[in-house]
Structure prediction request, 376 residues.
Amino acid sequence: MAPDGEEEREWLPVAAPAFVGNEKRYVLECLESGWVSSIGRFIGEFEQRFAEFCGVKHAISCCNGTVALHLALLALGIKRGDEVIVPTFTFVATANAVTYCGATPIFVDCDAGYWGVTADRIEAKMTDRVKAVVVVHMYGQPCDMAPIREVADRYGVPVIEDAAQAHGARYKGEVTGSLGTLGTFSFYGNKILTSGEGGMVVTNHDDLAGAVRLLKGQGMDPARRYWFPILGYNYRMTNIEAAIGLAQLEKAAWHLQKREQVASWYRAGLEGVEGVSLQQEMDWGRSSHWMVSVLLGGGIDRDAVMHALLASGIETRPFFIPMHRLPIYESIIEDPFLNADSISRRGINLPSGASLDEKAVERVVDRLKRSLPSGS
Ligand SMILES: *Cc1c(COP(=O)(O)O)cnc(C)c1O
Prediction:
């Protein structure tokens, strides 16, 4: 065991933003021009560039990824009494957005290998109360969208892609977010691209785009000032946020390439290590590698491993607790969610930011191996 040198003790966070472009310049421009709220040149430019990035007609900015989901569901007319299929293994915002509409989330279990939902599991929960399906590209690995869309089409329900973790991921060559009826993104500080806080709804449907725009801007009629034909919200993004977001987007290729590099270093270091398995990469798509994540073998004490890493200055996170285990949702449990339960108990997210170098990844890999019961 090598003695810990100075460098070895450098703190490695799970996720740190990387600002390598025009962020500072654009933010200063907001301050100097006075355009700090939700009017200003960066909003429109960020939206247009993001639509191009996703290969869709419309991108509508909003104040975070949770709100992006809420807007997408509202635009589809989801309301009290409706049901919406969502994965149980996801971040809580996916389910909460459904609840905000007065609708009920219907949970589905995930695949044991790639941790996303599957068409057959979705179909098993279809009833005539189900009015939409939300899929989540977990940790950036795209779901198998073609069969999911086929099932949704057959039942006549729209699909929302919660692509909060999957900016620039690809499914059969197409960018995630563009594959459903609507797609939603988050630009929180730990996501692939950040705007501080921020979100985006993308779609090819003109009517849905119009509905989202109306809803996010207090519901004010664009043709008549202070005329509010519907109950709207103030869900707008600020020009300062859009300034950061646009600067990040200009460097999207850099961010994605760096994350792919980090993931491949981890893969080389951890593949074949007993007691550790990585998220399965499926041949239908290319992950955005949001968080490099591993499952520990059944008998391994996850907390002990996480503590050992923490003692070496390496931050990790436990996996999300599945929705059906949370007090706000557990009453909705109908059946066991064996994969989600197993994955959630055994998974940890490793440091994954775009600014990690090979030495840092080697340090995590080495420390992780040594913290395993079989470790040397
Ligand atoms: C981050 C995240 C959200 C919420 O985004 P915020 O911008 O934090 O509101 C929603 N869904 C998933 C899957 C996420 O990872």
Remarks:
- The two ends are 8 Å apart (CA to CA).
- Residues 64-66, 90-91, 93-94, 136, 162, 164-165, 186, 188, 199 surround pyridoxal-5'-phosphate (CB under 6 Å).
